[in-house]
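Checklist before submission:
- one chain only
- standard amino acids only
- sequence pasted in full

Submission:
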Amino acid sequence: MGGGKIIIACIPAAVEGVLFDSTFEALFYHAVPVALALIVFEIAFIVIESRTEGRQPRITFSNLLMILVSIIVFLALGYLWLSNHSLAEIKEAADILAKEGLKISAIQNHYSLLNRSSETSGILDYCKENDIIFFSYMVLEQGALTGKYDTEHPFPADSDRGRTYNPMLPTLEKLNKELEKIADRHHVATAQIPVA
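Returned file contents:
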């Protein structure tokens, strides 16, 4: 879709936003609508990410259960956690929740030796400053930082992990050898070093 078509497609939303801004704010800028919107966004994220990677969306029972638990905990205790959001989105959600006397309890984002975006973007600092628990996921990069895979033992070539990590294996092999040295000094498994 060309840039002009995108601009034209956005005009109705822009007009509605200008005309009904105060109405939208009164109706939707509250804790429950924002929490529900974030949960719907999480589902959309799973679907869109799957489709862009050429896979069928997998909204599994465990995904739905986590969403249900999120809703129950939020409604019962007022605790809300976010996953896969930028610093700007986190701040916006925090501002909206604060108007209701609520706050974000936890953030869960991709964070590893290979992906430091939560650190470089300021999310970790924001969490520390605002007493928000930060949970990282994919700290072992789907096994790439365990020492199990190398240029002689690559990921299956037809897998998502293979397409992502196999081109990086020469560099990862060097990194994993250094991790192994550190692990040997501390008498732990190689995979425990990136987790720590």
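Reviewer check: The radius of gyration is 21 Å.
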